[in-house]
Design brief:
It contains 2 helices and 5 strands, in the order αβββαββ. By secondary structure, the chain is of the alpha+beta class.
């Protein structure tokens, strides 16, 4: 009886260790080096900007206006991974900063 319970506990311990390692590997796979997670926000019809981005790690409640998103974004995903450059130009939309997307990671 003792051997069976010890074997079961050991088996459960090994399974739980392997599950945690898989999760960490998947997180690294999703977020490649140099890319930032961005949430795509589709604006109301009254808003001048049709699409805004909220980028993780930037100031709270700051939105970005991607001037070339159509070149990269061809799906309906709400979360994308991008590299970008902040632009020094007049804002096209209120309360947003214009950016140019230089690269977009396609998560498979």
């Amino acid at each position: 009886m003792k051997k069976t319970s010890i074997i079961i506990l050991l088996f459960l311990f090994i399974i739980s260790c392997n599950c945690n390692k898989k999760v960490v590997k998947n997180e690294k796979k999703i977020m490649p080096a140099g890319f930032k997670k961005a949430i795509v926000i589709k604006a109301d019809s009254n808003d001048l900007c049709h699409i805004k981005l909220q980028i993780e790690g930037e100031k709270n409640n700051q939105y970005f206006d991607p001037i070339n998103l159509k070149d990269f974004y061809k799906s309906s995903k709400k979360i994308i991974w991008i590299k970008y450059v902040k632009l020094r130009m007049k804002n096209r939309c209120p309360n947003t900063q214009p950016i140019k997307i230089t690269e977009m990671y396609k998560n498979k």
